[in-house]
Specification:
With 290 residues, this protein is α+β, with helices and mostly antiparallel strands. Helices cover 52% and strands 13% of the residues. The protein has a 5-stranded antiparallel beta sheet. Helix 1 runs antiparallel to helix 6 and helix 12 packs across helix 14. The termini are far apart.
């Protein structure tokens, strides 16, 4: 991915999202742009219009942390957007390379100890994924919860492909638009961490070609931190699930993330997870008989 293009489109898209009212700028007369003008961002950041225009054209190499912080404050960037801007700056001067993890073999296999750790979690779905949103490993309940993802793929399950290319996603995610927005923002964040990831390039190219919904969202340049929250699902066996999630980086493999889903004690979702575990155990016994 061209760093200068990424910088230009990211800063331009952030500027378009900030209204003058939100920035505290008086509005008079008709405006030709949806957000702030370059001159207004420059004034808020305490720099000349010429210098800010140079930065927005993609020239971030050698820019100081103080300047990046001033731009972030002027554009009201959240934590995920600030981190993304910093990574783009590091990529521009080459320092991002030292932060990248080593390339994994294409046929990555889960370590036995990692699978044992997942299997030790018996009352909650637990999964491991990478920055490209491949579903790499799961415990018993995790495989049961994401059974659609496993059943409709010829290879490694991938959340982005499922979301945009599989019709079952519209049922599985009751708020499909939110799920789609989050999926693309997660991939955008991954692209900022490692813009030279060929597997990610190929995935984005495939989805951009095959899905207008993906292509439109990718062009928005939104990023996010996938850490904690609540997600809603509709499983084809047990129905609605309202699950809190916690995502944790694996220290031994920092580009992999373990996500644990839990239900509120005493809630209908807790009962549904018990039913899901029973269904999964029955299916496993049936498979073993075949």
């Amino acid at each position: 991915m061209d760093n200068r293009v990424e910088v230009r489109e990211f800063l331009t898209s952030r500027r378009a999202k900030i209204t003058p009212e939100r920035a505290g700028i008086p509005v008079a007369g008709q405006r030709r742009v949806p957000g702030l003008r370059r001159s207004e961002v420059a004034a808020l950041a305490g720099m000349s219009v010429e210098y800010y225009a140079k930065l927005e054209r993609g020239t971030l190499a050698g820019v100081s942390a103080g300047v990046l912080d001033a731009i972030a404050r002027a554009l009201h960037l959240d934590d995920a957007e600030r981190a993304h801007l910093l990574r783009l700056a590091h990529e521009a001067d080459g320092s991002n390379a030292i932060l990248r993890t080593r390339r994994r073999p294409k046929q990555w296999t889960v370590r036995p100890s990692l699978q044992w750790s997942l299997d030790a979690i018996t009352t909650a779905p637990a999964i491991v994924g990478n920055n490209r949103l491949d579903l790499l490993a799961a415990n018993h309940l995790g495989r049961a919860m994401y059974s659609d993802h496993y059943s409709n793929t010829g290879g490694q399950p991938n959340f982005a492909r499922f979301t945009f290319l599989d019709s079952a996603a519209r049922r599985f995610y009751p708020d499909w638009d939110l799920a789609a927005d989050m999926t693309v923002a997660n991939l955008r964040t991954a692209a900022g961490k490692d813009p030279h990831d060929k597997g990610l390039h190929d995935l984005v190219g495939e989805l951009s070609t095959r899905s207008d919904d993906f292509r439109r969202r990718w062009g928005a340049h939104n990023v996010r931190t996938h850490g904690t929250g609540v997600k809603h699902f509709h499983h084809h066996i047990v129905g609605g699930l309202e699950l809190a999630y916690e995502s944790m980086d694996l220290r031994a493999e920092p580009d992999l993330t373990m996500t644990l889903y839990t239900a509120e004690p005493g809630s209908p979702t807790e009962d549904a997870l018990r039913l899901l575990a029973s269904w999964a155990a029955h299916n496993q016994q049936h498979d073993h008989r075949l």
